[in-house]
Amino acid sequence: MAEVGESSGAKSPQEIWAKLVPSDSRHSDVEIKSDEIVICSVIRLSSFDEHAWCTIKRNSDLCSATLQNKSSTAILADEAVIHNGDTIDIRCGSEIIPGPDREGYLRYRFKVMPRPETSQKQLKICIDVDHAKCSICLSVWHDVVTVAPCFHNFCNGCFSEWLRRSQEKRSSVLCPQCRAVVQFAGRNHFLHYIGEDILKADSSLKRSDEEVATLDSCASIQSNLVIKSGKKLGRKRSYSPLHEDDHSVELPCPQCGTESGGFRCDHNTIHLQCHACGGMMPSRPPATTVPQHCLGCDRAFCGAYWHAHRVTGTGSHAMCRVETFQPISERTISRIPFWAHEKNRHEQDITEKCIRQMGRTLQDVITEWITKFNNREIDRTRMPLNHAERITSGTHLCNDCYEKLVSFLLYWYRISMPKNLLPPDALAREDCWYGYACRTQHHNEEHARKRNHVCRPTRGSNF
Ligand SMILES: [Zn+2]
Ligand SMILES: [Zn+2]
Ligand SMILES: [Zn+2]
Ligand SMILES: [Zn+2]
Ligand SMILES: [Zn+2]
Ligand SMILES: [Zn+2]
Fold first, then answer.
1. How far apart are CA 235 and CA 230, in angstroms?
2. Are 303 and 326 in contact (CB under 8 A)?
3. Residue 234 C-alpha to ligand 4 middle, in angstroms?
4. How far is the CA of 291 from the centre of ligand 3 (A)?
5. 301 CA distance to ligand 6 centroid (A)?
6. Would you list the domain boundaries of the chain?
7. DSSP state string for 389-433
8. Ligand nearest to the CA of 299
9. What CATH architecture is 2-119?
């Protein structure tokens, strides 16, 4: 019977981060200390000969490892056969057998040790809960927004309601806490996590589900709002003699000075900043105008808005072309997006080949799958976009979100394609146990090429 032991030549003493635990308790655990280790098999019956059996290399996530077979016989890892030189991702609980058959060999479980406090990257800080409360509702912030220049924080819902009332009164927006004129408001993601951690630590501070739902229904701040008025900005700018006779530059957006499409900004108009071009547009109520936010990422984009108001670039304002923010059905695509198949280039090539073999174009395939998507024939659980359930072919998406949607559809195209339509070399490959969630495919070219990764995981945390 062959048993394995840690390689000699271990480096300086380190914490044991993982172990190979044998199924038979008469044998001892193999402790793994260094980030990369050669495990040797010790043939007890002969003369304590050591043979390299495999290497185990800790992955950057610190909770999985890459195992490479260094022996002449196969290794079974999670029931996959690993030949000499092949690698596989293993994680806590993976079963490793010094194959080729399961009989007559010790089975090992790969076990990742819990990390000691010191190696955790989390920093513990003390916070007075009162400093994490909204001064409008007096509870811990929910979906916190920060206003500038005073940097006070409120719940999105609470501040949105305040904003709406100020707009109704057509007065400038004052900070509810200190009465400073608010020039900017935006979601604060860092404080959002702090708020969540506080609620996790003390659940008695949590609000009821109904309260949260009411707050969410009032929340209107999706992306950064620029509340600074045109007039003020103008006055400030005119201090510079360079801009004295160039009045158009002083106004945040094209609708500030001139009426177009039946609307003109006044000095209390709140502006949104386009994520693509950095230009400004007035924030308009969603029901009365074309979309100003991408439903996939909640960021603001100006392309559709200016197109609908027939405002074209004048040179004095940054402005997007209509193509950058269009309904899904009006978009076209000519190359496989970078995100497709978890950025696995081999799988992207296979998809490209499949499409070509069938005498079709990427656009044909996507048009067909958008129809299926629109008819709700596709499960949207894994769709990497916000508000996935609300998206239809008429939804405006930004370029990034559209490419993510196309990538999502290409996964479905591939997974539902009869195997015999795959190119022969792709057909011969076995599915990777970790499927699309496999991390090895990102750092191991050979593995990425040898195994199919357009499949569901049958192992691992996403299983
Ligand atoms: Zn509040
Ligand atoms: Zn304030
Ligand atoms: Zn304006
Ligand atoms: Zn988007
Ligand atoms: Zn823009
Ligand atoms: Zn894999």
1. 9
2. yes
3. 32
4. 16
5. 37
6. 2-119, 129-221, 230-320, 340-428
7. GG--TT-EEEHHHHHHHHHHHHHHHHHTS-GGGS-HHHHTPEEPT
8. 4
9. Sandwich (2.60)
pTM above 0.70, yes or no: no
Give the number of the ligand closest to the Cα of residue 195.
Answer: 1
- Kindly report whether the peptide bond that precedes residue 100 is cis, defined as omega within 30 degrees of 0: yes
List residues, by chain if needed, whose CB lies under 5 Å from ion ligand 1: 134, 136-137, 155, 158
Nearest ligand (C-alpha, residue 266): 3
Domain 230-320 has CATH 3.30.40.140: yes
What is the average per-residue pLDDT within 329-335? Answer: 94
Contact predicate 99/81, CB 8 Å: yes
Q: What number is the average pLDDT over the span 216-232?
A: 75
**Distance from Cα 126 to the centre of ligand 2, integer Å:** 24
Between strands 430-431 and 451-452, the pairing is: parallel
Distance 275 CA to ligand 4 centre (A): 9
Ligand nearest to the CA of 302: 5
CA–centroid distance, residue 336 to ligand 6 (Å) = 21
Q: Could you tell me if 293 and 223 are in contact, meaning their C-beta atoms sit under 8 angstroms apart?
A: yes
pLDDT score, position 38: 85
* pLDDT tens per residue, range 42-92: 544 445 567 788 899 998 888 889 999 988 888 888 888 888 899 999 988
